[in-house]
Amino acid sequence: SHPANIKLNDGAAMPQLGFGVWQVPDDQAGTAVKTAIGAGYRSIDTAAIYGNESGVGQGIKAAGVARSELFITTKLWNDRQGATEPLKALDESLKRLQLDYVDLYLIHWPAPKQDRFVESWKALVTLKKEGRARSIGVSNFQAPHLSRIIDATGVTPAVNQIELHPRLQQKAMREFHARHGIATESWSPLGQGKLLDDPALTAVAKKHRKTTAQVILRWHLENGLIAIPKSTHEPRIRENFALFDFKLDSSDLAQIAKLDANGRIGPDPDRFS
Ligand code: NAD
C-alpha cells in the first residue's frame, strides 16, 4: 500500500509518487508538507522560484520523519544559470530548506536563449561530487538539450521532469529517456485539475469506484512515470496517495491512450526565457 521506488541511473532510489508545492504560499507550505508526510508521502518537489523553500523546510522539520527517509527535490531558477552561480544558488536553497543536502537538484528550464545550460550542468556535476545534491537532473529539457549536456560531460541526468498528463503523453520524450536511462517525472500530472471532468476519465473512475484524480495518477504509475500531484487540502492530499488498492485494465489504458492531444498547458521549453 505504498508507492514503489524508481531506481535512478546513478543508483539512487526515488519514490514514484511525491508531493508538489508550486503555488503554495510560503506560510502555507509548512502545513501542507507536514500533512503530506503525515499521509505517507516521502518525496517533496519544490523550487527556488516557488518562494516556499523556507516553509517546506519547516514542514519537513515538523513532520519528524528521519531525513534519510525523505527525498527532497529543488530546482535552479533561470537567472542563476552559469558556471558558478548554481553553486551559490543551491547553498541558498539549502539554507532556506534547513538541509545540508537535497536528494535531487534540477535545472528548472533549459532557457535556450541564454544558452548557459551546458555550463550549468557542469556545475551540477560538481554539486553531485560534493554531495550537496545526491542526484542531479533537469526539467523541461527537449531531446537536443539533453544530447548537448550528455555529449559535453558524459553525465546523463538522472531525471527529466516535464509536463506530462493524459492530454500530453510525451511519447517521443519517454522513448528518448528510455534509450538513455533517464527517469521521466510528470509535472502537472493532473493537468492542473483541468482533466478532472474529462468524460472518458470519469467513466473509468466510476467503473473502479475511484476518483478521476486517482485514475489519472494510477495511469502515471502504471506507465512507469514519477508523479508529483499538488493539493493543499488534506482530504485530497490523502486521496492522491490512496492508489494502491486498484489497477487499470487494458481497456482503461486504451481509453486513456486516446486522450493524447498535444495539450500543453505550460510554456514551450524551446521558447521560455
Ligand atoms: P497538478 O496537475 O498536480 O494539479 C493540481 C491541482 O489539481 C490542484 O491545485 C487542485 O486544484 C487540483 N487537485 C489536486 N488533487 C485533486 C483531487 N484529488 N481532486 C480534485 N482536484 C484536485 O498541478 P501542478 O501543481 O501544476 O503540478 C504538480 C507539481 O508539479 C507542482 O506542484 C510542482 O511541484 C511541479 N511542477 C513543475 C513544473 C516545472 O516546470 N518543473 C511546472 C509545473 C509544476
UniProtKB/TrEMBL annotation:
Binding site for substrate: 108
Positions marked as site (Lowers pKa of active site Tyr): 75
Catalytic-site annotation from UniProt: 50 (proton donor)
Molecular function as annotated in GO: oxidoreductase activity, acting on the CH-OH group of donors, NAD or NADP as acceptor
Segments forming domain NADP-dependent oxidoreductase: 17-260
Keywords: NADP, Oxidoreductase
Membrane-spanning segments: none
InterPro entries: AKR, Aldo/ket_reductase_CS, NAD(P)_OxRdtase_dom_sf, NADP_OxRdtase_dom
Family note: Belongs to the aldo/keto reductase family.
Name of the featured protein: Oxidoreductase
Organism field: Hypericibacter adhaerens
